[in-house]
Structure formats: C-alpha cells, structure tokens
Design brief:
Length: 214
C-alpha cells in the first residue's frame, strides 16, 4: 500500500534529521574543511544518491545546522518577563555544556571562528546573526544592571562583547583542551558576584541612595 502524503513527509523529516545528526558527528570529528560528503553518507549509512536527494552537498548540510543553531541561540536570548540575570545564567550554563560534546552550537561556532565557513552568502548570514545576537545580549545585560544584578558602571555593550569573545576563544580551544567543569560558575561569578544572595550592586545602589537622600 502506497504511503500517504503525511507519511512521506514524516519519513523525509526522519531521514533529514538522521543525515544532520550524522553530519554533526563527522564535523565534530574532522572539522568542516576536512569532512566530505562520502564521510557523512557513510556515517548515516546512506548511499550518495539518497543523501543528495535531501541536501545539495556538504555546505547545504552545514547551512541547515547553522539555521538550527541560530534558532536555538535566538530563543535563549529572546525577551521574556524572567529576571535578566536568570536568563543570562541559563544561557551561559547551556553554552558551556554545549562546548563539551558534539553539540550543533559547538560544531558550528568552531567552524565559524576557525574560518572554515565557505560560501559568502553563509558568512553574510552569520555576520548579521552575530550583530543581532550582540544587541540582544547587550539589552539583556542592561536590564540585569537596572535590576541590580550586574555592575551598572560598566558599559553593557562592552560586557556583551567580552562574553562573545570569551565563547569564541572557548569554541576554538575546547576541541583540544576539555572545558573545566566549573567554567560556567567562574564566568557567572565574574559577571554577577552577588547572584547567590542579595544582589551586590542593588545593595550598593541602595546605600548610595540613602546617603544622597534620593
């Protein structure tokens, strides 16, 4: 009995996901530059012809992974009613966890920061995404400053840039040197020393207000 349109669509999505997962393992092991379509097909246990039925080539597979990463990072930093420092804490913790294994974010970021991304179109998309990400991070940090959890005397955009530089360095280094387990805690302690108890900067702001009578 022939498959229905819905069943065909579901099968296509399952196979597409299988290819992406296989490609992720190959890219994590070999890097984007050294990986070949044959490696991905072998890892997925697919023929070349079947793989090309779903993706035009290695770059198309990588672009699909990039799209997933963009969506995940955007969701992490999207505006919510949640306290800003809690959102930042969760995002940093996830980034550190992702750097420890064959996670799409780590694999994509490593390829990007190592200069392995090939097509000009993809580089342009990633550049726009990084600008958008930096703005969202800046806005989230600024809100955490207003809420008293991060030192308001430091420029929010500068803090965001430093965090992005930090994760850029980690994404390059981690494949060669495992990430220390307390890495997320160290980063968060530097960013917001008082987050476990009364917010440090809120307390300082309150003290200054009492002294000035404002």
């Amino acid at each position: 009995m022939p498959r229905s349109t819905k069943e065909n669509a579901e099968l296509r999505e399952v196979r597409r996901r299988h290819i992406l997962d296989a490609a992720l393992r190959v890219f994590a092991a070999k890097g984007l530059a050294r990986a070949k379509v044959a490696d991905i097909a072998r890892e997925a246990n697919f023929s070349h012809g079947l793989l090309y039925h779903y993706f035009a080539g290695k770059e198309a597979v990588f672009e699909a992974l990039v799209a997933e990463v963009m969506e995940r990072i955007d969701a992490d930093l999207a505006p919510t009613t949640e306290r800003a420092i809690d959102r930042i804490t969760a995002s940093i913790t996830r980034r550190c966890e992702m750097l420890d294994g064959p996670d799409p974010v780590r694999v994509v970021m490593h390829a990007v920061f190592q200069g392995e991304v090939g097509t000009p179109e993809l580089r342009a998309r990633l550049s726009k995404h990084m600008v958008r990400l930096r703005r969202r991070l800046r806005d989230l940090i600024a809100r955490a400053q207003r809420e008293g959890d991060i030192d308001p005397n430091i420029d929010a955009d500068e803090i965001g840039r430093l965090l992005m530089f930090l994760f850029r360095g980690l994404s390059i280094d981690v494949p060669h040197h495992p990430l220390p387990r307390p890495a997320a805690e160290t980063i968060l302690h530097l960013l917001a020393p008082g987050r476990r108890g009364a917010p440090r900067w809120a307390a300082q702001t309150t003290t200054r207000s009492r002294r000035t009578g404002t």
